[in-house]
Amino acid sequence: MITLYGFGPMFGLPDPSPYVMKTEVQLKMAGLGYLKLPGDLDAAPKRKLPVIDDDGVVVADSAFIRWHIEQKYGVDFDEGLDTRERALAWAAERMAEDHLGWALGYARWLMPENFDKGPARFFDDLPEPARSQAQAETRDAVRGAMEAHGIARHSLCEITRLADRSLCSLSTLLGDKTYLMGERPCGADAVVFAMTAGALCPHFDSPIRQAAERYGELVAYSERMMRLFFPAYTAAAQEAA
């Protein structure tokens, strides 16, 4: 039995982490049964989620979880794609995770109004003054990581321009296809969908969300993927969250 450790439903999304959403979608794509439980970052091997426990085999990081699923269960998430298409899918996945994902993280963690109604809620179970201290310390750590990466050294306007370029590229790659690489979802669809859904999440307001909303293909794609893999989370349900 596979146990997936994530954060749980929050902010109108199946999980606030697009990386957890990616893994959950890929488990669904593979047709594998799993139990989803709240994860403990302090106990996680790399101090981040997702993590899976597959009958005692613990795998951390969504990329390595994907490869574990493919190797153990004989799943090819890119079945039907030729060599060039597989390369494009991997490039799209890397752009979504290693570029757009950082911009989305900035909008949630370092825009004060979004932090207050978003990540700050992760600490609701702590009593004061420990709650405020944990919020401040964690936000400072996130800021430090983002400054080390480089994204937090830009202005919000500059970050939005970078995010918009990635969104435009993903929209162009998608075009009029049902899914990223054709008429069936591939491995990269899991993360591109997760990032797109995060960018469009109504709970958070930012110039990045406004930019994402201008790409009708991505809006329709996100809704299509949500209906397919998380039918309880329709656009209407998100608006009500």
Structural overview:
- This protein is 57% helix and 7% strand.
- By secondary structure, it is of the alpha+beta class.
- It folds into two domains: 2-73, Glutaredoxin (3-Layer(aba) Sandwich), CATH 3.40.30.10; 83-230, Glutathione S-transferase Yfyf (Class Pi), Chain A, domain 2 (Up-down Bundle), CATH 1.20.1050.
- The chain has a four-stranded mixed beta sheet with strand order 2-1-3-4, with helices on one face.
- Helix 1 runs parallel beside helix 2, helix 3 runs antiparallel to helix 6 (156-174) and helix 7 (187-200) crosses helix 9.
- The longest helix has 27 residues, at 83-109.
- It is globular.
- It starts with a strand and ends with a helix.
Key descriptive features of the protein:
10 helices; 4-stranded mixed sheet; 7% strand; Glutathione S-transferase Yfyf (Class Pi), Chain A, domain 2; 241 residues; 57% helix; 2 domains; alpha+beta; Glutaredoxin
